[in-house]
Design brief:
390 residues; alpha/beta
């Protein structure tokens, strides 16, 4: 039976998603091409052997529209014979790209695939793909949810209220994310996964020196009078500090079989063990990581205690803290090198970025199993279990 293994995983440093960010001047095509070029260079394979490039991008508009992954593959120097496609499962887009790639390899449809992700939020703002859409829902959807849905920030507030998460808990979590990311950077733990670009050789958003008193002075980022009347249970504690950043970046993961890897002289970092995707209440939007985690562990035949390292996307501190409350996961094994609150969240690139960090961290720690999951707009989540191979 065929398997699917990761033989290399790389990413750009994550830049601040603003006009003054270090990666703002890089066209999105070139931003993704950089990771694609790096993964071929590091494996040493002839890119003509790549059966497909599957890229995840959330805001497919402007410079990121019209199958940007194909243009990036050509910009990276891949032969014209190598196809490429772009997928959208919102923030989990490139984690879904990893799933599609691995499932294709296991099925025998592919031998070698690159799963990748991209987002240049400074050049293509979030929501730009909905510009001009007077009604993104339609009559039947609106009839099913007559009270309407909410934005992700309000959803994060609803989660904090439902799980009784305090401002202090969320701010402490945010500080820990920055501390872990700064320590990992200082110890050189990201060097193997990074492909420096435009003079940037480390993640740009990591901050040090913060404290609870400073964070407590920040104003709620998503307070809205109408939402406050609709949801009186919300205490409005989500701030810019305990939420993910707006960022630019890309990442790429090369996937093949153990047999092909051996023939090419490549050493797998990890085997893609099990996959799951789940849906949950679209009002709360970000909670499907709970059922997705349970689903993938059941498919893997593993328990929570079998997982050595977790990567849970830090869209908001409340999301990860609620997930930990529901699953019972040890936060000491979650995002041990920091998460999106510190490193950044370049939407479509984040799934491949988390996978890149996870497989390298497993290799460094000697752990066996890793689990990645991330919340996605619409009440969705992907979950993946990987196994380090010895």
């Amino acid at each position: 039976m065929r398997d699917a293994v990761i033989v290399e995983a790389v990413r750009t440093p994550i830049g601040k998603g603003r006009a003054t960010g270090s990666l703002h001047g890089i066209h999105p095509v070139d931003l993704l091409a950089h990771s694609l070029r790096a993964i071929v260079d590091r494996t040493g394979i002839d890119p003509v052997l790549v059966d497909d490039v599957i890229g995840g991008v959330v805001t497919q508009a402007g410079e990121q529209a019209a199958n940007v992954t194909r243009r990036a593959a050509l910009a990276a120097g891949f032969p014209e014979s190598v196809p490429a496609t772009t997928v959208d499962r919102q923030c989990g887009s490139s984690q879904q790209a990893v799933h599609f790639a691995a499932q294709g390899v296991i099925a025998g449809a592919y031998d070698i695939v690159v799963a990748a992700g991209l987002e240049s939020m400074s050049r293509v703002p979030m929501g730009a793909n909905l510009a001009g859409a007077a009604d993104p829902y339609g009559e039947a959807f609106a009839a099913r949810y007559p009270d309407g849905l909410v934005g992700q920030g309000v959803a994060a507030e609803l989660i904090a209220a439902r799980w009784n998460l305090s401002r202090t808990e969320m701010d402490e979590f945010a500080l820990t994310s920055h501390e872990r990311a700064a320590k990992a950077t200082g110890n050189g733990l990201f060097e193997r996964e990074l492909a420096p670009l435009a003079g940037l050789d480390r993640d740009e958003g990591i901050r040090t020196g913060g404290d609870l008193r400073t964070l407590a002075a920040l104003r709620p980022a998503y307070y809205d009078e109408d939402m406050a009347r609709r949801f009186p249970q919300i205490t409005w504690n989500v701030t810019a500090a305990n939420a993910s950043q707006i960022n630019d970046g890309s990442a790429a993961v090369m996937i093949t079989t153990s047999e092909i890897a051996a023939k090419l002289g490549l050493t797998p970092l990890a085997r893609l063990h099990s996959f799951a995707v789940a849906g949950d209440d679209p009002l709360y939007m970000l909670t499907a990581i709970v059922p997705a985690t349970r689903k993938v562990l059941l498919r893997a035949g593993l328990g929570l205690d079998d997982i050595d390292l977790f990567e849970v996307n830090e869209a908001f501190a409340s999301v990860v803290l609620a997930w930990a409350r529901e699953t019972g996961a040890d936060l000491g094994r979650v995002n041990v090198r920091g998460g999106a609150i510190a490193l950044g969240h370049p939407l479509g690139a984040s799934g491949a970025r988390l996978m890149t960090t996870l497989v390298h961290a497993l290799a460094d720690s000697g752990g066996r199993y890793g689990l990645q999951t991330m919340c996605e707009a619409g009440g969705l989540a992907n979950a993946t279990v990987v196994e380090r191979l010895t």
